[in-house]
Fold this sequence. Notes:
Layout: E1 2-7, E2 10-13, E3 18-26, E4 31-39, E5 46-52, E6 57-58, E7 67-71, E8 77-82, E9 91-99, E10 106-107, E11 111-116
Parallel strand pairs: 2-11
Antiparallel strand pairs: 1-3, 3-8, 4-5, 4-9, 5-6, 7-8, 9-10, 9-11
Amino acid sequence: QVQLVESGGGLVQAGGSLRLSCAVSGNLFSVTSMGWYRQEPGNKRELLAAITDGGTTYYPDSAKGRFAISRDNTKTTVFLQMNTLKPEDTAVYYCAAEFRGGQPPSWGQGTQVTVSS
């Protein structure tokens, strides 16, 4: 079992930056990738960035350019650097762990990001 705890959210002015952190603990052996998602009220949760166990990163076209995923050398903390934030980036941001073998993903509790205009 893997536990995920996000932090670093808050209130920021448009144009500013935030760095979110996701602390990962538990049995990491089966983790194949980590990802950052966000969800606005009434909308689906959308993927922003992912990093595989091997270090390969992936960004959907909608997130390229302003978001960057990284992790520490121990693979126990995953970061999301967010730049040039816009009011429409206001959402709850979640990290998730994907596993091999068909196990369902694990999710953190989320951290609120609010961007003021």
